[in-house]
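Same chain as my last thread, 228 residues:
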Amino acid sequence: MQRAVVLLSGGLDSATTLAIARSEGRECHCLTVDYGQRHRVEIDAAARVAAALGAAGQRVVRLDLAQFGGSALTDPGIAVPQAPTPGIPVTYVPARNTVFLSLALGWAEVLGAHDLVIGVNALDYSGYPDCRPEYVAAFEQLASLATARGVQGERFHIHAPLQHMTKAQIIRRGIDLGLDYGLTHSCYDPGADGQPCGRCDSCILRAAGFVEAGVADPIAVPAPSPRT
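reply #2:
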């Protein structure tokens, strides 16, 4: 089995990515990053998904990007939008995927793995610049330039199997692979009990995806109460 490092947040997309990588016969080593996100409940979801899908292992790296702020996901002074916004949203975490892929690359080099797997999406990507295909291609080139194994002639490959799929297509693919989406967490602004808000961009995209896929979301999202 080919070894791969899979970035696993615990969300719908990353869980589907792990399911796909496993279905391809890869030995999956999951990397979850505790980066000071307000929705840290997703870290527990990542552990559930890794265990359920038979990952070879999972590591949680603690890296406090909240020290920099600049995002509604890491700065408590910035509110999570309660509806989709045009342009790059305030839930964008500066350079997050670059940081995550760099960590995954370092672990892959130690493991002797050539494959890094990430659940970025170019269709429902909500304006994040580090989810674009050209970004993924550029990092793949960097990976072989910036590592000892790379300069020795080995190649690293970044796999982004969801890149050109709609949310509904992603959900259908996961269901075909037997993935239980009840294990996942998508909300950016959960309540104290960990329940999804039903209002944020991520909740809205998830809900729309399940509706289009024609299946029920196993996570019961309460109807948003009127804002005052």
